[in-house]
Design goal:
The protein has 268 residues and is α/β, with parallel strands linked by helices. It has 13 helices and ten strands. The protein has helices at 11-14, 19-32, 47-51, 77-87, 98-101, 105-114, 129-136, 146-149, 153-162, 174-183, 204-214, 247-250, 255-267; strands at residues 57-62, 65-66, 70-71, 91-95, 119-122, 141-145, 166-171, 187-191, 220-224, 242-245. The strands form two sheets. Strands 1-4-5-6-7-8-9-10 form an eight-stranded parallel beta barrel, surrounded by six helices. It is globular, with a radius of gyration of 17 Å. The termini are far apart.
Amino acid sequence: MSGDVPAPLSRAALGSVPGTLGRIALEREADYRDNTFVPVQASGPSFTAALARPGLRVIAEVKRASPSQGAIAELDPAETARSYETAGAAALSVLTEPRHFGGEAGHLQQVSAAVDIPLLRKDFTVHPQQLSEAAALGASAVLLIVAVLGEHTAAYLQLAGQLGLDALVEVHSDPELDIALDSGAQLIGINNRDLTTLQIDLQTAPRLGKRARAAGYRGLLVAESGYRSADELHGVTDFADAVLIGTSLAGSGDPGAALRELLTGLNG
C-alpha cells in the first residue's frame, strides 16, 4: 500500500464536535486509541456498482437501536440481512457502534457470511484501523462523516480507496457538502437527521442534493434518514440514486416484508 496513513483524530479535535455526535465520536476515540493500523484489503462486491444500477436503489439497515429512538428491535443480524436480500435490497448497512445503536463488529461478520450483496460498515470513523477492520469483517464500504472528520475527510477517503473500500461521505449542511465535493467523493450521503440535535428535516436531502447536481456533481447521491413510505420517496428520484432506510424497516416487526412492500409501492 502506498501513500500516507492519516493520523487518528485526537480528543482535542473531536472536542469541537457538538451534541450527541460529539459524545459518540469521543467514545469511539477512546475505544480505538491504543489500536495500531494494519492494512487489510477489502474483497467484497462493489457497493458503488450496486447503487449505480437503474432506478432508486435501497440500502436496508440492520439496526437494533438509536440515540433518538432507544431500543428498536432485537434483530438477529444474519436473519434480518437474508430477509432484506430476498426482498430486493441493493445493499445493506450494518451498525457496529455498541453503546447507542446496539451494534458490534461481530454483526458485520455474521451478515457478511449470510448474504452476497455489498455491505456498508456504519460507524463513527475516527481511526484508520476502523477501515482495515471493516475490510477484514467483510464490508465493501465505510461511512465517513464530514461533521466528525472535517478537514481530514479527503485523507480518510484516500485510505479507504487504497484498501479497496468504497466510502459513503456523509453531509448535513452546505459547508459539509463543500468539503465532500472538494474531497473528490464519488458517493455522498445526505442525512436528513442533524446528528448533533437528532432532529429530522426531510427537506435537507433534496436541497443539498439539488445543489450538488447544480454544481456539476456526477457521483452517486444517497438520501438518508426519516423515510417511512414509498410516497415520501418519489421525489427523491429527482436528485438521488439511492436511499438508506433503517428505523422504519427494523422496527416494523418483519423487516423483509416491510422492504418488499416499500419497493412494490416505489416501483408500482
